[in-house]
Amino acid sequence: MLTVIFVMAAEIMIFVPSVARFREDFLLSRLERAQIASLALLANETLDMDLEDELLANAGVYNVVLRRNEIRQLVLSSPIPQQIYATYDLRDASGFQLMRDAMSTLFDPEDRVIRVIGDPVKEAGLLIEVTLNTEPLRMAMIDYGYRILLLSAVISLFTAALLFLAVRELLVRPIKRVVGAMTSYQEAPEDARRIIQPTAKVAELSEAEYALRSMQTELTAALRQKERLAQLGEAVAKISHDLRNILTTAQLFSDRLEMSEDPAVMRSAPKLMNSIQRAVNLCESTLAFGKAEEPAPRLTGVRVSELVEEVIAAERIGVGDFDLSFSVEVPATMVVRADPEQMHRVLSNLVRNACQAIIATGKPGEISVSGREDEAEWVFHVSDTGPGLPLKAREHLFQPFQGGTRKGGFGLGLAIAAELVRGHGGRLMLDQSDEGGTDFSIHLPKGFSTISPDVGRGQDAAAA
What we know:
By secondary structure, the protein is of the alpha+beta class.
């Protein structure tokens, strides 16, 4: 329908020039006939009146005037039924004049007598002038207009049919195919077989299909990972439940160690008790949470130097006789506003990763933990002299199951650490990772809280 409308609109735009050209050709044909009739009379001056009337009737004019050799001569003549209405000179008429005169003739229903002036054919004289009725001209123009209208309708319908078939083949069918692929994918987004395969020939549709395939591929992968995470979460919850029971039993036995008089046992017992208590708390948090995010931190005043020493002491036991040294450059008086258990997990994950990276090389190394503060934030650096992170780990850093830094690792340590730091309103950043080693930084905002340097780990900042 739109194609028919547009084609008809285009035909209307060319209708006026076409009708004007038809009117001009009609009048020129009358001039040509009149000239032939006048030349027949000039060749034989003895023509009778009946033959002269027949020549005028065949020419479709009332009289013919020729100008030859600077002489204006009435060659053929007959009675004119009314006064001449207008004179039209076709010799120097502009396109606008021709269109204006054509429209005035077409929309004037009254039969009038007009004079037409033009150049003789084959330059047979200087000028030819005829008088004729407008009714035959008007009827011929109306008939020509109807024929143009009919031809335009046929062309528009034919064009519309071709355009419809082309649009249906090039656009409608591919779009229906895309819609069908989206509907099919919606029914089972985990099924990779339902991902669309681009086949469109139109560039824009092809781009849309490739974009849809990319989105479906990413969504399918995300759904699969989500399903794996859900299964893993369920498994972790079951393991945490049983592990909590085991740790509770171990905690009961470790309580008796406090009554031992062995100096070595007396020194190790508090650390063992703290480690078991953290494990129990972690299991309880996992069971209570049961989702893919950490609970909100319980902010207290934490003396970081004590926390770092505790983490490093635990890692020294795991390192054993390997040539690995630790250095701590955290002010003893630095107290931060944080959750002590979550900060212990953050530092433990970072230090343990550094230990594993250095041990994997088989070469001696050093791990350094430093801290500083300014008016806006506390900043801690955990750096090592290991081989640096692999490219894949740097590309998917802090993403679970994708940012593993060693063979057999799952990439959970950094992801957990980053999430815990974000829970404090801070950020965990990778500042350096190359052959010279790796450096992570923890940024914790101070906000509007002020913590006294005398606050010990575990004390509430509000109470301070």
